[in-house]
Design goal:
11 helices, single chain, TIM Barrel, Urease, subunit C, domain 1, 2 domains
């Protein structure tokens, strides 16, 4: 067996997070892809790790890097399928600089792939963001590209309910139509929409049959019956569960009830603000942990100081805990994915591999890239993040390339 790229990395002394367990005393080898994970006893015949790699993979010693994880966790990289911005940048800025910087900052949270997420704004702004993302996706295989891999676009709106718009601008709310998406079917991965809108069911059916796009129910006032019709038509997920959707009532189960009684996936913003800590396991206990997807819904103030910011053309006040419009409406979050995972560990009884799957395997399965990403399995891309017991990220590799490294103090 020979490596496709010359350099080979070896991580030793790490606690490797697999699908359903944490493995210790193994060495993980990778270049662009995961090569193998081996027992230290297998090395003894060769003398040391470097000799093993040199002889088996026919590479020069100078092209081998051995990383000592020093007992830290070695995890699949995280996939954030719902993120608007970070570090003062927003997807709707529509510039390469904005989206490239979001990708770079994502790596400091352990995110190795993501869906830049648009908002309900002017059609020209949405299409401009699409075009910029499409251009970046054609060049991200180049050696100069930095940051997390862009897997496509999450189009949140404008096909949403004005009543359940959340922090979206209702002056740009529109009825579902193919015209807005028809030229970008190749890059759109998820569309958040309200199934009860005029033409909503037909749109869901058409998109689901003519493309690989995932229709996700969100910003919706759908009744239980309307939501189930949407699911029957092709809806596969629910956007930020509980938030901006018709609530559960014993005489009117609403969109929440439809999610609970179906097999679709659901996003959860695990910041303990968008949902009470007790709710972080409520839906997964009912539906199964394999249907829960952790997202950040992060906006441009993430990783920034508290103060005044903008989201979708509206003013947002950011504190240490939340981002809100002037009327108090939550406006995305300032959550980072490693913090979301920490919150899950602290507020649920799920084990760490199960929680990591919510940020890696589960989103990869939803958007159809699990064959290549979402777990540390041989042959998959080497999307890897390393973090300590406090869930502080020390290293992040995107397709085997070191994209974030926090120096030890």
């Amino acid at each position: 067996m020979h490596s496709k790229t010359r350099k080979i990395n070896a991580i030793k002394n790490g606690r490797i997070i697999m699908d359903d367990l944490v493995v210790e005393n193994k060495i993980l080898l990778f270049n662009e892809r995961i090569l193998e994970w081996i027992e230290p006893t297998e090395i003894k015949t060769f003398g040391n790790i470097q000799e093993y790699i040199t002889k088996k993979y026919c590479v020069h010693p100078q092209d081998i890097e051995i990383i000592d994880a020093k007992g830290q966790f070695v995890s699949p990289g995280f996939t954030d399928i719902h993120i608007h911005g970070m570090g003062g940048f927003d997807v709707m800025d529509g510039t390469s600089q904005a989206i490239e910087n979001i990708g770079k900052l994502n790596c400091s949270s352990g995110v190795t792939s993501y869906l830049p997420t648009t908002m309900t704004q002017d059609t020209e702004k949405i299409l401009s963001a699409f075009d910029t993302i499409q251009e970046l996706m054609t060049h991200q295989r180049g050696s100069n590209f930095k940051g997390a891999r862009i897997l496509g676009v999450h189009m949140e709106g404008p096909f949403i309910s004005s009543t359940f718009k959340g922090a979206q601008d209702d002056q740009f709310v529109a009825q579902p139509n193919m015209k807005l998406v028809e030229n970008h079917l190749n890059i759109i991965k998820v569309i958040t929409l309200a199934p009860e809108l005029i033409g909503g069911i037909d749109f869901i059916k058409r998109v689901s049959t003519e493309s690989d796009i995932i229709c996700s129910m969100g910003h919706t006032g759908a009744s239980f019956e309307q939501a189930l019709l949407g699911i029957k038509a092709g809806i596969k997920s629910a956007t930020h569960m509980f938030n901006a959707m018709s609530a559960l009532h014993h005489r009117d189960p609403g969109a929440v009830g439809a999610v609970l009684t179906s097999d679709i996936y659901f996003e959860m913003i695990a910041d303990t603000i968008h949902t009470h800590p007790a709710m972080l396991s409520f839906v997964a206990d009912i539906k199964g942990t394999d249907k829960m997807i952790l997202v950040t819904d992060a906006m441009r103030a993430t990783c920034m100081k508290c103060g005044q910011y903008e989201l979708g053309g509206q003013k947002v006040t950011v504190t240490n805990e939340s981002a809100r419009l002037a009327d108090g409406t939550l406006a995305g979050s300032v959550l980072r994915m490693n913090q979301a995972i920490k919150n899950m560990v602290e507020n649920t009884s799920y084990d760490l591999p199960t929680i990591i799957n919510m940020a890696s395997a589960n989103p990869a399965k939803l958007i159809g890239c699990f064959a290549e990403r979402g777990s540390i399995s041989c042959g998959k891309y080497a999307d890897i993040t390393v973090f300590n017991d406090a869930f502080e990220i020390s290293r992040t590799y995107v397709e085997g390339k070191l994209e974030f490294h926090k120096e030890e103090k």
